[in-house]
User: Fold this.
Amino acid sequence: MSLTKAAQGLYFRMSHVQLKGIVSAGFETNGKGHQGFIVELPGAFVRGKTERQALDKVKKEVDLYLKWLGMEPKHDYEIRIVQRHKSNAVVEDADTAILLEADRGEIRVEEFKRLADLARYSKETFVKLYTSTQHKDWIDESRIRKTFYGDNPATIQRIFDHVRNCQFYYLSRIGITEEMDGDFADTRERCLEKLGAFYMENNNLAMFEENGELWTLKKVLRRFIWHDRIHAKAITRILERQRQLGIIDAYDDPFHFMKTTNG
Assistant:
């Protein structure tokens, strides 16, 4: 499934990004790092040691997100910080716990379908990036370190497997504990089917707390897209490293990360 022009139009008719050039951001910090999420663009994010450093990356993140959707940026953006959250998450290591105010409350069927379509499109782009790579088991030694969730994945294959498996984790945050066999694409589709059934029963009104973190259906969908993006960026950095070392001549970057870089 590809994100059609009609779906793009539906999305951006609802968004101040295209209509007025307004970007709303919710920020999270543990005092050691800052991460911001762009409310109008589910899964879009910026990071920095300080909030100012992260804010300075917002326009580029909006630009590459629009390019990812096949659209040309049209505006300079007025950035509005609509939320600040003090977090116990390891934000400096790309952990996150924030529940955006936009993640709360009832959502219409059209919005749920739009979010599900974006999660499908994100999945398609991630799989396209992965399948285009040649040296999936090449170890990027610069990525070898410990993280809050264990060893940092140092190969394209391990990153891909990590993202696939985390889909089950996100479902479990709202009480859906069934694990499913299948490849990445099949797993995402099954997850969306489960979330569709959850939506029909609960809309976005059920809230769950796991280890002190609050979750809703809408947050799960946003986190799918965010998790695809943050690890796709890691894959493109490995590919760029391979290119610099002469292991490959070039690579595909359907997310446009290396064309408009954001740390």
Notes: The chain has a mean pLDDT of 90. The longest strand covers residues 78-86. Strands lie at 22-29, 34-38, 45-48, 78-86, 146-147, 150-151, 208-210, 213-215. The helical segments are 5-13, 16-19, 51-55, 58-68, 109-131, 156-172, 184-202, 217-244.
